Amino acid sequence: QMQLVESGGGLVQAGGSLRLSCAASGRTFSAYNMGWFRQAPGKEREFVAHIKWSGDSTYYADSVKGRFTISRDNAKNTMYLQMNSLKPEDAAVYYCNAGGAVAQPGIYWGQGTQVTVSS
Q1: Distance between CA atoms of 97 and 109, rounded to whole angstroms?
Q2: Where are the alpha helices (DSSP H) in the chain?
Q3: Which of 53, 98, 108, 112 is deepest in the core (most CB within 10 A)?
Q4: What does DSSP assign to residue 89?
Q5: CA dist 106 to 12, 38, 55, 87, Å?
Q6: In a 3-state reduction of DSSP, which class is residue 12?
Q7: Do 96 and 4 contact (CB within 8 A), yes or no?
Q8: Is the model's pLDDT at 27 over the cut of 90?
Q9: Cα 61 from chain centroid (whole Å)
């Protein structure tokens, strides 16, 4: 089992920034592709960003490309999502995921962290 714990969510004004973190334990973090997904009220969970196990390849949903940056520190067993120029439509619960492919989630999920963007 891999445990994933997100942090860093909160309330921010439109145009502002937040950095989410995902701390992993229980498995060899550096062996896993990682991703961020989000779910807004009344909507399905959607892909946000993906990073290869090595950190040398990243992929983004079109809706966040150029504004969000995914990264990881394998020495710290932690993944990050830097979110800039936030928009009200970015408001959602953000979930950390491990073991998947691009836009395809793996079996390990965190509990989620709420991001609220005020207009």
Answers
A1: 5
A2: none
A3: 98
A4: G
A5: 29, 14, 17, 27
A6: strand
A7: yes
A8: no
A9: 11
